[in-house]
Amino acid sequence: MPEATHVASGKVRELYALDDERLLLVASDRISTFDVVLPTEIPDKGRVLTGLSGFWFARTRHIVGNHLLALRDDGRSTECRRLEMLPLECVVRGYITGSGWKDYVATGEVCGHVLPEGLRESERLPEPIFTPSTKAQTGHDENISRDEAAELVGRERFEDVESIALDLYRFAAAHAESRGIILADTKFELGVDGDGALVLADEAFTPDSSRFWPADRYEPGGPQPSFDKQFVRDYCESVGWDKTHPGPELPEHVVVETRAKYVEAFARLTGVSFDDYVADPDVVLR
Length: 286
Ligand code: Q0Z
Known about the structure:
Blueprint: E1 5-9, E2 13-17, E3 22-27, E4 32-33, E5 36-37, H1 45-59, E6 65-66, E7 68-71, E8 77-81, E9 84-85, E10 90-95, H2 98-107, E11 109-110, E12 113-114, E13 124-130, H3 146-153, H4 155-178, E14 181-192, E15 198-201, E16 210-214, H5 230-238, H6 252-270, H7 274-279
Parallel strand pairs: 6-15
Antiparallel strand pairs: 1-2, 2-3, 3-8, 4-5, 7-8, 9-14, 10-13, 10-14, 11-12, 14-15, 14-16
Helix pairs in contact: 1-6, 3-4, 5-6
Bound molecules: ligand Q0Z.
């Protein structure tokens, strides 16, 4: 078999080319918080994220096709179709938080959506909204208006993208809610295949690409605890780190608690135990 060629590095993932048509996406166990990758890894985090994406790809095929070709036996590597990626990030928000909350406080709008007055931080929106952003090569993606997004991809394509994005969010959020997890918002990427069809690519509805909140702790009026990263954030705050590189090493108890949260999210959302996934990754696709 020809060797995989390294193509790109993300903060916590690596991308390789297998041949002209196929890529290999490898999720590491690295974790980032406050935009900094920490020196300590969370064992199995990459497998949890890969398994979750596979699960969602298998269950959203009725909404849109996806890039998944195969999960490798290591549980952290996805063989996928190489696509022409759209030059925008698809973001859907069901709750008003993060940069959406900042924009709302400043202007009453998010990406051109005029929102009701008097929303509290983290409040559920009357309807989910599509709030695209640009793909920043470095630094932060920038929210753009729906008109700007339509200029980037063309009006007709934009309407399909928005409709698919909202359908995907509604499907995943309803499933997560039934398992006690609020999917506050999510970001994913669409590509176009050789036939011109839109395809869901990259990662889908993972804790790195979405905000997962424990539903039983939901209390609008301020920021919400993160389902997966809260122990890490609390520890980083407790040591007075200034949130610049390098971040602090994590103590063993924080690693163990955080790994347990990832594994719990995986089992709750997929209905499959993490051990069963490790024994046979394809179990999430069936
Ligand atoms: C995804 C990224 C990562 C660095 C390109 N199916 C696809 N076809 C074409 N391009 C991509 C995909 Cl997934 C693609 N990225 C994001 C992922 C490391 C950058 F693991 N870049």
